[in-house]
Design a protein that fits this description.
The structure holds 2 protein chains of 2 kinds. By secondary structure, chain A is mainly alpha-helical. Chain A is about 65% helix and about 5% strand. The N terminus of chain A is likely disordered. In chain B, strands 1-2 form a two-stranded antiparallel sheet. The N and C termini of chain B lie far apart (about 40 Å). The chains are: A mainly alpha, B mainly alpha. At the A-B interface, helix 5, helix 11 and helix 13 of A face helix 3, helix 4, helix 9 and helix 11 of B.
């Protein structure tokens, strides 16, 4: 299979001689080609926002980006690799605490952010050998146990704040306005890189392998897909994303609290975002994050009601509208992030 | 002597874990459902007792008369509606649906009963204990919970092994298509299986409420311990589940004996070690359940 990213000209073997009734296999769609321009504009506008908006708006947007990163990486796990994890908070916690520890030892928290993400991927490697022994639902609860163990181990270290948590040092040295803007840009960069990473992973051989496994694991193995390796790579990428999100959380909240960063509510958010938007699509988590975020902001004063309402919507979507909101829009075959191969009639040949 | 006491307390705690694990094991073994809302359902059972018992001083043992039947009906209804619908979309959907329900349940309890912790009163039983010497104390309540766990596991085992409905449930677990071809009303039978599983969750929730304080967010920990008991014992083995529960209980109390702050951590670590060394559990399934 050629994966050169461009179009591959294929003539159908059954086509009559000289008729040139070829089909064309493309990786991009018209929508995706048109979307590149607006995407660049959106990114540029988002990058300029700190000069325009109130500080509290940009810090709200930081939370949006954190949620987006978590949703996209969880979707990679569950929607493509079939790994339903309820324990990604393990890496949110490790990411946040890695920033804290590095900052305590003199590193600038913003420099520590990418380091923390890499630390998470390194931690995820041995962990994957353990949790991959479990299948399906047992994998889900096993990852949750791992997150709980990480949390219980972390709070034993008094220098990291024990059970109550502590402030991230060095952040008070910044001017508040500069700090907010830097945090915002860091979050924007992490979100954009995560989007790009998910897109690249899914368009690569791994993505094709995973999609094949998701659709029919037996058939995929039969044609030689190395399933465990593909799943492990996705698990590491998702840990990287969750770790970056955790690091952002530590920086934006200026402190790290174990109950917050290791809380299972993060898994609830990721799952709801993906279920509402549409599992197993690139676009789904983006729409899901927007919808979830709007609901969260609207229902912010209703206490526990917002999770009751959002959770009920997610459950209903999972049962009755499996493809999520993007799936409902998908009847036109719109693809902003095409990751597969599409067979199109070659109009020139007609 | 403290060590002997720790071992006894661990075994007693194991009974509680096994009681939780029973319903989890049954739902997975028969219906293939991993119920992530299991812990929250147990907590719901305890809150139903809080809400329906006439006063906080009423002996909560009375709740055993109405909570398990209510949960059985609830289980049957859930299976016939939401769970079956989600099963049709695949096992991963069921997982996500039950996780969603657990979050909804937890927050509904938070909204209805506040974040304050509650406990169920069992009158003077809570302080009565058998004390053979100064350092060993066997609470009658905890002993009672262990006995209830053994009785519930034995009854479920007997029900599956000996009754007509039990045979139908096992047939369903083996091959649901074949079961329906030979004339079993698979949807009804699946509902019965869910009813039994939910009834045991109700009992487990009441037992937990009598044993310790609980709050709306207690469910997660209960789910983890129940699940660990199932894995340590070996998937699908009900008696293995009892062993698994006792191993966890022992790990927790012996760990706490060494350092009071590491009890829970020890239980989780023992689980991870078993997972790494013997992924099929200590007592792999001998009887399907």
């Amino acid at each position: 299979m050629t994966t050169d990213g461009g179009h591959v000209q294929v003539t159908t073997p059954s086509a009559p001689e000289g008729s040139a009734a070829g089909v064309r296999i493309r990786r991009s769609t018209r929508a995706s080609r048109w979307a590149i321009g607006p995407a660049v504009v959106v990114l540029a506008v988002l990058a300029y926002l700190p000069f325009l908006l109130q500080q509290d708006t940009t810090s709200t947007l930081v939370n949006f980006f954190i949620l987006l990163v978590l949703g996209m990486t969880w979707n990679l796990l569950a929607g493509y690799a079939g790994l339903v994890s309820v324990g990604q908070q393990a890496y949110i916690g490790v990411g946040a605490y890695a920033v804290l520890w590095l900052a305590q030892h003199g590193m600038n928290p913003f420099v520590a952010l990418p380091v923390a993400a890499v630390v998470c991927a390194v931690v995820a490697f041995p962990t994957s050998w353990l949790v991959f022994r479990l299948r399906g639902g047992y994998f889900a609860i096993g990852t949750w146990v791992v997150a709980t163990v990480f949390a219980l181990l972390t709070i034993r270290d008094a220098s990291l704040g024990g059970g109550t948590g502590t402030n991230v040092p060095h952040l008070d040295g910044y001017d508040p306005v500069v700090l907010r803007a830097l945090t915002y840009w860091a979050a924007l960069v992490v979100a954009a890189l995560t989007l790009a990473a998910c897109y690249i992973v899914l368009r690569s051989r791994i993505g094709i392998a995973l999609t094949a496994v998701r659709d029919d694991e037996t058939a995929a193995r039969a044609v030689g897909v190395h399933v465990p390796r593909a799943k492990r790579i996705v698990y590491l990428v998702a840990a990287l994303g969750a770790g970056a999100a955790g690091a952002l959380l530590a920086i934006s909240q200026l402190n790290v609290q174990p109950n917050n960063v290791y809380g299972v509510q993060w898994s609830a958010y990721m799952i709801f975002v993906v279920l509402i938007g549409g599992i197993g699509t690139m676009e789904g988590p983006i729409i899901g994050t927007i919808v979830f975020f709007v609901l969260q902001q609207t229902l912010a004063n209703e206490g526990a009601w917002y999770l009751i309402i959002v959770g009920s919507i997610a459950v209903a979507m999972a049962v009755w509208a499996r493809q999520g909101l993007w799936g409902l829009l998908d009847r036109w075959g719109l693809r902003l992030f095409p990751v597969g191969y599409r067979v199109e009639r070659d109009h020139a040949g007609q | 002597m403290n060590w002997i006491n720790a071992i006894i307390q661990g075994l007693l705690l194991g009974g509680l874990f096994a009681l939780f694990a029973c319903g989890l094991s049954m739902l997975f073994g028969v219906l293939g459902i991993i119920n992530l809302a299991h812990g929250d359902l147990a907590v719901l059972g305890a809150y139903v007792a809080v809400a329906l018992l006439p006063s906080v001083h009423t002996n909560a043992l009375w709740a055993l008369l109405f909570v398990p039947p209510m949960f059985a009906v609830f289980g049957y209804a859930s299976q016939r509606t939401l769970l079956r619908r989600s099963m049709e979309s695949g096992p991963l959907t069921t997982l996500l649906v039950t996780f969603g329900l657990s979050v909804v349940l937890e927050n509904a309890l938070l909204e209805g009963f506040s974040a304050d912790s509650h406990s169920l009163s069992v009158g003077s039983l809570v302080t009565k204990a058998f004390r053979p010497n100064s350092s060993i104390s066997i609470s009658y309540l905890r002993l009672g919970i262990l006995v209830v766990a053994v009785v519930v596991l034995a009854l479920v085992q007997l029900f599956l092994a000996r009754t007509g409905t039990g045979r139908q449930i096992r047939a369903l677990a083996d091959d649901s298509e074949a079961a329906s071809i030979v004339g079993i009303n698979t949807r009804h039978v699946a509902g019965i299986a869910a009813a039994v599983a939910f009834a045991t969750v109700g009992i487990a929730g009441l037992a937990d409420g009598m044993y310790a304080q609980f709050g709306p967010t207690s469910g997660g920990t209960l789910l983890l311990f129940g699940f660990e008991a199932v894995i340590i014992g070996g998937l699908g083995s009900l008696w293995g589940t009892l062993v698994g529960g006792c191993v966890l209980g022992l790990a927790q109390t012996i760990g706490a004996q060494i350092d009071p702050t590491i009890g829970v951590l020890c239980a989780h670590v023992v689980f991870l070690v078993v997972l790494a060394v013997k992924p099929n559990g200590l007592m792999p399934a001998t009887v399907d359940a």
